Amino acid sequence: MNRTPLGPINGNKTHRKELTPFTRGFILGKLTSGVTPPQIEREIHAPRSTIRSVLRASEWLEEGASKPRSGRPT
After folding, report:
1. Distance of alpha carbon 24 from its chain centroid, rounded?
2. Closest Cα to residue 63, out of 28, 37, 18, 30?
3. Which one, of 38, 28, 35, lies nearest residue 58 by Cα?
4. Do 61 and 23 meet the contact criterion of CB atoms below 8 Å apart?
5. Separation in Å, CA 21 to CA 53, 60, 66
6. C-alpha R_g of the chain
7. pLDDT given for residue 4 in this prediction
8. Which residues have CB under 8 Å from 28's CB, separation 6+?
9. What's residue 35's pLDDT?
């Protein structure tokens, strides 16, 4: 659904928050112990794409924390 300029904003749209280092570690621990992504998805109520991106990002994340971003903090 496209929004018209100056039209109402859909209040039902969710804004996802960044995962905590604990949650990332939990996902990685489950994956390394042999639990499948669909099982993790059901357990923590996160989309499968999030689980895949945590696995991909695990190579360059330091201690599970996100790297600092450039620009003004919000």
Report:
1. 9
2. 28
3. 28
4. no
5. 14, 13, 8
6. 16
7. 64
8. 54, 55, 58, 64
9. 92
In this structure, are residues 37 and 51 in contact, taking their beta carbons and an 8 Å threshold? yes
Number of CB atoms found within 10 A of residue 44's CB: 14
User: What is the spatial distance between Cα 8 and Cα 61, in angstroms, rounded to a whole number?
Assistant: 39
The Cα 50–Cα 41 span in angstroms is: 9
As a whole number of angstroms, the distance between CA 27 and CA 51 comes to: 7
The position carrying tokens 């109520």 is 45
Half-sphere exposure of 72 (CA within 13 A, CB side): 1
Q: What pLDDT, on a 0 to 100 scale, did the predictor assign at position 8?
A: 67
In tens, the pLDDT along 23-70 reads 888 988 998 899 998 999 999 888 888 888 888 887 766 666 666 677
